[in-house]
Write the structure tokens for this entry.
Amino acid sequence: MSKNHTGPPPQAPYEYAIVIHGGAGTLQKGQLSPEQELEYKAALDSALIVGKTILQNGGSAQEAVVKTIMILEDSPLFNAGKGAVFTHDGTNELDASIMEGSQLKAGAVGGVSIVKNPITAAQAVMNNSPHVMLSGAGADQFAKEQNLTLVEPSYFFTQKNYDRLQNILKREEDERRKKDGQGFLNTLSEDADSKFGTVGCAALDKNGNLAAGTSTGGMTNKRWDRIGDSPIIGAGTYADNRTVAVSCTGHGEYFIRHAVAHDLSARLMYTNQTIYQAADTIININLKEIGALGGLIAIDKYGNVAMPFNTSCMFRGYANNVKHEVKLFKEDE
Ligand code: ASP
């Protein structure tokens, strides 16, 4: 088993536990200045503290997941909410999902463009609609009817993400010229130091309920209303009180095809694998073999936490009633 796991031995019962990610990617240690590292760690830490405090005070896993993700969505540092990346057409289309493990209720939105905190729209779909997944203008309209906080699309503009798109478009144009207009262009190409930057959270509350959520701007330069794994229940997010709560990050197309979040739950349901073995097999063997980059965070029903990733970094952190830590790179293990 690789070193990309953490936490206590399996089946240690914790009163509560919370784990978060701020995206996996190919950013190498040293590419961030010490100040930038501190900035990311502080942002992760403040989100973790919000969720941990809710759980400590007896709040629900669902509430902890939503409030924690909202903090990360409000930060321009992550590819979710305020910091969402740009589509090919220069717009921002955001995806989010949530699931709770006591009744297997779930909610998701794909391609919203005026909802300040897409995770709140996913939660509203779960709790206040007969549906699981809404998309595009309809999802925006639903958020409006739910009195969620709306913003102008320009709220999601960040210079850093805009420049990133321009660089990719320029590279594509150069490639196209080279190929003389022939060939298939990689419409989801990321910049060299890319970090996907999606955010996610999983939590176990004192009542033994699990919940998980994921929120993202998707992938820079996405086209044709592309939707990744993040808002897809069973791919980017899953929670079942009998097994695990999980949120994924990485190249969404692979995570959809391998039903990664549900695969982890199924392994815990049908095999004797621990959360560490199961999560590690999926990320560091199965996905790695096919060149699928990414990672996941998960909490099992005992509060054990796994955070495997097959990239050079996954911004991550976890806390329970005895421990609290935040890490960025593989070297930080
Ligand atoms: N999984 C997300 C997507 O494919 C990207 C990410 O995790 O950063 O949309």
Remarks:
- The two ends are 14 Å apart (CA to CA).
